Amino acid sequence: MKNTAVAGTLVLAFAGCLAAVAQDSAPSKHTDPFAAPGKNRPLPGLRLNDDIIRNAVRATIKESKEDRKVTSSGRVLSASKDNDPYVKFGRQFSQAQVPGCIGPDPLKHVPTGTVIRSKNFGDWAIGVGGVFAAPFWGYAVLTGKCN
Questions:
Q1: Is the pTM of this model over 0.70?
Q2: What's the DSSP call for residue 119?
Q3: Which of 42, 51, 65, 126 has the most CB within a 10 Å radius?
Q4: Which residues are CB-contacts of 101 (< 8 A; sequence separation ≥ 6)?
Q5: What whole-number distance in Å separates Cα of residue 95 and Cα of residue 98?
Q6: For 126, phi and psi rounded to 5 degrees?
Q7: Residues near 114 by Cβ (< 8 Å), separated by ≥ 6?
Q8: pLDDT tens digit sequence for 75-112
Q9: Distance CA 147, CA 140 (A)
Q10: How far is CA 146 from the centre of its chain?
Q11: Contact 63, 6 (CB under 8 A)
């Protein structure tokens, strides 16, 4: 819906610019050296009038109404997505998939850190990333935690 509204706004802005250019009959001080002689006036079919602008606005409104009809019926605008069993199953399925070893998240099922326990200082959680996570990546490859 937003895309058609933006497109309609752009069409109207472009139409206004073309109308201003088409109605400008004052000769230009700057001449284009590559322009053909006698081609300074716009073609009669390119001039915009009220009927053309009115038809463009009506077409844009019609498209936006059609978009509203499509999105208002269906699961897209359902209020409780957490209670939907299909959404829950899809989320659980995507979380359970084994990631690729050379992908965006190869260490999804492998912890990349450790906890150091000490009686005097308590528990320290140390996490690593980047190049320092290479041993954890090797562990994931060897144990089949990634494909």
A1: no
A2: T
A3: 42
A4: 137, 140, 141, 146, 147
A5: 8
A6: -120, 120
A7: 125, 126
A8: 555 555 667 788 888 888 888 888 888 888 888 888 88
A9: 9
A10: 29
A11: no
